[in-house]
UniProtKB/TrEMBL annotation:
One of its GO terms (molecular function) is DNA-binding transcription factor activity. Keywords: DNA-binding, Transcription, Transcription regulation. PROSITE patterns: HTH_LACI_2. The keyword Ubl conjugation does not apply. This is Regulatory protein LacI. Residues 3-57 form the HTH lacI-type domain. The keyword Zinc does not apply.
Amino acid sequence: MVITTKDIAKIANVSQSTVSRCLNNSSMISDKTKQRVLKIAQEHGFQFNASARSLSTRKTHTIGIVCLKRMFDDAHNIHYIDWQDSLIENLERLDYDVIISLLINKFTGQNNIRKLISAKKVDGLIIMQQELDAESMAILEQSSIPYIFCKYLPTVCKTRDVDYVHVDQFKGGYLATQHLIGLGHQRIMCISAKVSGGEFEQRIEGYKTAFGDNALSFAKNPILYGDGTFHSGYQLIQDHKDQLKGITAIFGQNDLMALGALSALREMHIKVPEDIAMIGYDNIKLCTYFKPYLTSVHQPFDEVALLTCKRLVELMNSKESNIKQKLAVQPKLIIRESCGA
């Protein structure tokens, strides 16, 4: 038997309108009454009608996440899936439904930010895009829907005042390089990637700054560029064997490329960390799947996701204009076997 708000009202000995207000989290009802009514509803398996709630409150209780296409790419998604899952988990904990969308519908070419907003499908948007076109930015700015950027700040936003939560990538590059220098390494090869979003550029700046702070030159240390995949890390080492002479450490600026490089070194009978120390970046689960376990810079995606979701909910619940916030979460070096100490 399906329970209704009328049934709940009878059990709780309150009016049906009071039940409705409790289910809609109305400020007109005391917390004590809300908790009692919600407990009864939950115990009897009551399912709230989302369409009815939307009509009465003009809220969908749904958040849209506009994510990267590469989140669904097998060569990259090992890292990105953790970010997506953490965002979904935090939103569901806050009792929001989630719509996952790419920026552009690959079949119709339609802008999904425009679609989600114009169709009134969401109360807020989390944007995880390395780059954003001017049209999409204009749609966001002209809409009353709150939005926040997570992980990346697109170029079009550099001169705009927007809400943004991210990891300090410069600090991550600095931590990895400083640790290797502290172990006595000066000839440190860097394996990076030329992809949009600015993260790898910031890691390289951290790498270079660490050398400068230790009165060392990085000029003789090769910086190689792949595409962020395991295969590119492997191929970079294979294609640049001659540049390994004198190198005592490698900083792979993501774990997939670092693991690919480690595989190539193993084929060359170069031991890690005995011959060449290795540090990766991202701290993905694969770091402890193979020996030696990979030392890596941990990106605290759970903390970023929590701050992103909390901030977006603040924006959605605020009736006044808010001062925009840019929050940088600090990374942490996770030391394992591959760097020797």
